[in-house]
Write a structure and sequence with these properties.
Largest sheet: 4 strands, parallel
Bound molecules: zinc ion
Oligomer: single chain
Helix content: 40-55%
């Protein structure tokens, strides 16, 4: 496989990108000047040293100072520590933050559970979530905020089943987003008002 084909393969793994788009990206790069391509290559290399995963919620953040292991949100003591919202990915967290009505903490699953998946624990950060819940004595509610898609619903069902024992033990309420989110809609692309409504109407 030559460099062009390899790069097309890489772009194909990006979310929402098909083979034709991946191909267009590579030919776009070929049309760029050296400086622009070098800049992109350098930025990709620097990602690892510039950004890191928050040790508490699992979202990625850029390190402004070395030796910081928590993101801005987890570091913010003014947030409501009785509620934890579970989302699939960083982009979902950003959509909810834009809505501006949620003031609790988050947990990023880092994936979703496909239908008929035999090993869901390999697809999402469920062990880390259980640990996070066990280590937070102030919690009274866990909000499962997954996209209103088939896989999102499947993930919600799995999370409910898995977390129910710990929720019962610690007297935690497990809630899900309300009907503000129409069927098939992805949290990432929902507008702030829709998300706010879904959050207010959670059950
Ligand atoms: Zn965090």
């Amino acid at each position: 496989m030559n460099a062009i084909d390899k790069l097309v393969e890489h772009f194909r793994r990006f979310p929402g990108i098909g083979p034709r788009q991946a191909n267009r990206f590579v030919y776009h790069l070929l049309g760029q000047n050296h400086a622009s391509r070098d800049d992109l290559a350098r930025l990709i290399t620097e990602l690892k040293s510039e950004a890191q995963m928050c040790g508490v919620c699992g979202q990625f953040f850029t390190k402004k100072q070395p030796n910081i292991s928590k993101c801005n949100i987890c570091n913010d003591v003014n947030r409501d520590n009785t509620v934890l919202m579970v989302v699939e990915k960083d982009a979902d967290l950003q959509s909810i933050e834009k809505g501006g009505i949620y003031n609790g903490y988050y947990f990023i699953l880092g994936g979703i559970v496909p239908i008929l998946e035999k090993n869901p624990e390999n697809k999402i950060r469920i062990r880390e979530l259980e640990k996070r819940i066990a280590n937070t004595s102030t919690l009274s509610e866990i909000i499962l905020a997954l996209s209103a898609t088939t896989e999102g619903d499947n993930t919600t069902t799995y999370l409910r089943e898995t977390l129910t024992p710990v929720a019962k033990k610690s007297d935690l309420k497990i809630s899900i987003l309300g009907r503000g989110l129409s069927t098939g809609s992805e949290l990432e692309y929902s507008d702030p008002d829709t998300i706010s409504n879904a959050l207010r109407n959670r059950s």
